[in-house]
Known about the structure:
Elements: H1 3-6, H2 9-49, E1 55-60, E2 63-68
Antiparallel strand pairs: 1-2
Amino acid sequence: MSYWDCLPPELQESIIQLAESQLAHEQRRQELLTKINKEICLYMHVQEAWGLGGLRLQNAKNRLRISGYYEDKG
């Protein structure tokens, strides 16, 4: 018999619900990050097309790093 089987059914259900909730939260977070990354990429292309400078994205270890410059034409 495993430790899981020794737990009361109420506690097993609570643990399962917590795991499902965490999974749903992480999926929403990933969807939001994907949307934000797309918006940043679009902004970069527009900025470069308008001649306002260039930005670079670096994605390392699930972190997005933005570097570059902005040219004030005003």
